[in-house]
Design a protein that fits this description.
α1 packs across α3 and α3 packs across α7. By secondary structure, the chain is α+β, with helices and mostly antiparallel strands. The protein is globular, with a radius of gyration of 19 Å. Strands 1-2-12-3-13-17-15-16 form an eight-stranded mixed beta sheet, sandwiched between helices. Strands 5-4-9-6-7-8 form a six-stranded antiparallel beta sheet, with no helix packed on it. Strands 10-11-19-18-14 form a five-stranded mixed beta sheet. It folds into two domains: 235 residues, Aminopeptidase, CATH 3.40.630.10; 65 residues, Beta Barrel (Elongation Factor Tu (Ef-tu), domain 3).
């Protein structure tokens, strides 16, 4: 969990993912000599802050978004949401501006004739446009991990674990997922044009719901706001059963991921969201069970060899 804790500490809201990308680049550079296959690293001009790892002859790509939710500072100390963070009065937030490091608290101001206003508490007025994130608070027990930003640093962690044994495949570390999606289209285009990759798995974290429980195994999403192609989904479920790895099936009416952006693209790419379920979604206290994390890694390893 040391790698996951380091990932959680990196500030990287939607539109500001470069530090996360640089951390992954350094990690891959220092670790990939010990992996089964040393990947080709694709990034730079034309890829914004995205990063692609290509292993052998890929047919399937893993997508893991690097960005997180947070807040932008507007006028008169107002906080404007980036993505959908849960606002909790007194919640600690951190960032930095021209005046140095920032540690502040969120304040919810009620209004009789309008929506609630979110502001930060400080004697100093921070630079307009500064981004603030949840203060890191990583907690680990024998059975669980609890922290801000398990969505989606845990998805990144899963992809990096799978990379250790991956012989043929690709991993895309994408941007902007929490605030509308942006980058998977041109990353998918690169993999399609150069390697004819037409299959994908979405390494992201889902929700605990009445139908998806803690410690029930990784969740395979049959649908959320988007609907994956049924024949591809059936193959994945059949392989999951064949593997003997514990999993559960998710069926939701809302929510989205990089898979939804792929579905709306003009590319014939199949996708399926597979991730561990968490509680306290989009808060500083996201909670995931280690059993579900372990089954997530195991199922991804199996699928990347079998699809």
């Amino acid at each position: 969990m040391e790698l996951l804790e380091k990932l959680v500490e990196i500030r990287g809201v939607s539109g500001d993912e470069s530090r996360v990308k640089e951390f992954i680049l350094q990690y891959v550079g220092g670790s990939s000599d010990n992996w089964a296959v040393k990947p080709k690293i694709v990034h730079g001009e034309g890829f914004q802050d995205c990063l692609i790892l290509v292993f052998g002859e890929p047919t399937t790509a893993i997508y893991a978004h690097m960005d997180s939710i947070g807040y932008s500072i507007g006028y008169d100390k107002e906080l404007i949401k980036i993505g959908g963070p849960r606002a909790i009065d007194g919640m600690p937030l951190v960032g930095s501006d021209s005046g140095g490091e920032i540690e502040t608290e969120l304040m919810i101001i009620d209004s009789e004739d309008g929506p609630k206003t979110l502001k930060y508490v400080s004697d100093r007025e921070f630079d307009r446009g500064t981004v603030l994130t949840f203060k890191p608070n990583f907690r680990e027990t024998n059975d669980t991990v609890q922290s801000p930003y398990l969505d989606n640093r845990l998805g990144i962690w899963n992809a990096l674990r799978v990379a250790e044994t991956l012989e043929n495949g690709a991993i895309v570390f994408s941007t902007y997922e929490e605030h509308g999606g942006n980058s998977v289209g041109f990353c998918a285009r690169y993999l399609y044009d150069n390697y004819r990759v037409r299959q994908s798995l979405i390494s992201d974290i889902t929700w605990v719901t009445p139908g998806v429980k803690h410690s029930g195994g990784v969740a395979i999403s049959m649908r959320d706001a988007g609907i994956p192609r049924r024949s591809y989904l059936n193959r994945i479920i059949a392989l999951a059963k064949e593997s003997g790895i514990e999993f559960q099936l998710e069926v939701e009416s809302a929510g989205g991921s990089d898979g939804g952006v792929l579905q709306k693209s003009d590319l014939p790419i199949d996708w399926c969201f597979i991730g561990a379920p968490e509680d306290h979604v989009h808060s500083p206290d996201e909670l995931v069970y280690k059993h579900d994390i372990n089954t997530m890694v195991a199922l991804y390893e199996y699928l990347m060899k079998s699809l």
